[in-house]
Design a protein that fits this description.
Length: 254
């Protein structure tokens, strides 16, 4: 397995894949209520999907709610994600604002990880990565295909490019149309994690057909998996309770 990445108390790339719960509230109240709800849920880290937030285009309001969220969740690891519409998110903003948003939030040092979409363009990606790293924030670099599963070589090449651009955790989510597509994603994960990666990677095949990929990270080499608490943020996510139980069963059987 690739090297381990440590974020606060979490060691990604070792043992049971870590469980990430997305927060998809629209208002300050909804976001903080979702965060409170997590007090009784077993998981490892939170993803705040800021593209769902009604004030996402107001940097001051984003900074205020990040602060409130950090106060609410204490030491829990926070991943900050603006998912663009073209990659399955709620809205599109200019590349300039996308960079400004991610850099401003990284500079607060209130989040532990930021998600940077690979296809934003190399220069912008490098700029965000540099600011994040200068502020002690790690980068999940991502790519999503909500319609199909690219060939194994293409999946590996995108993950390698993320690694070259400085991603701490390269991530890809693809949609299967056949069970063979699921096998393609799993084979790409296995090859990337054993032959090319020198850091943990995150992969998933979405939808019901791809569910096995969200459960078998320890077998094939994916370090993190997303599970739903109050609401899912992508097709195929199951409840975090069921996910935790299945991951434990997989771990014990190894
Ligand atoms: O990139 C991902 C993965 C994801 O799309 C999934 O399929 O679980 C869910 C998103 O919230 C997250 O940003």
């Amino acid at each position: 397995m690739a090297n381990i990445v440590e974020v606060r108390n979490l060691k990604l790339g070792e043992g049971i894949p870590k469980i990430c719960v997305p927060l998809v509230g629209k208002t300050n109240e909804e976001i903080l209520e979702e965060a409170k709800f997590l007090k009784n849920v077993k998981f490892d880290l939170i993803e705040w999907r800021v593209d769902h937030y009604e004030n996402v285009e107001d940097l001051e309001k984003v900074k205020e709610i990040v602060k409130a969220l950090r106060e609410e969740v204490g030491e829990t690891v926070i991943l900050f994600t603006f998912r663009s519409k073209k990659e399955g998110g709620e809205l599109e903003v200019s590349d300039e604002y996308y960079a400004q948003l991610n850099k401003t939030v990284a500079e607060t040092k209130l989040v532990d990880l930021v998600d940077v979409e690979l296809f934003t363009g190399d220069e912008i990606v490098k700029d965000i990565v540099e600011t994040a790293h200068n502020n002690g924030v790690k980068v999940v670099m991502s790519n999503h295909d909500f319609f199909k599963t690219p060939a194994k070589e293409e999946i590996i090449s995108r993950l390698c490019k993320m690694q070259d651009l400085g991603a701490d955790l390269p991530k890809i989510a693809v949609m299967p149309n056949t069970s063979e597509d699921v096998v393609t994603l799993l084979a790409a994960t296995e090859e990337m994690s054993t032959k090319h990666a020198n850091r943990p990677i995150i992969t998933m095949s979405m939808g019901g057909l791809g569910l096995v990929s969200r459960l078998s990270g320890e077998t094939f080499g994916s370090a993190l998996t997303f599970g739903a608490a109050k609401a899912a943020s992508a097709p195929g996510q199951i409840s975090v309770d069921k996910l935790a139980t299945i991951l434990e069963v997989m771990h014990e059987s190894k």
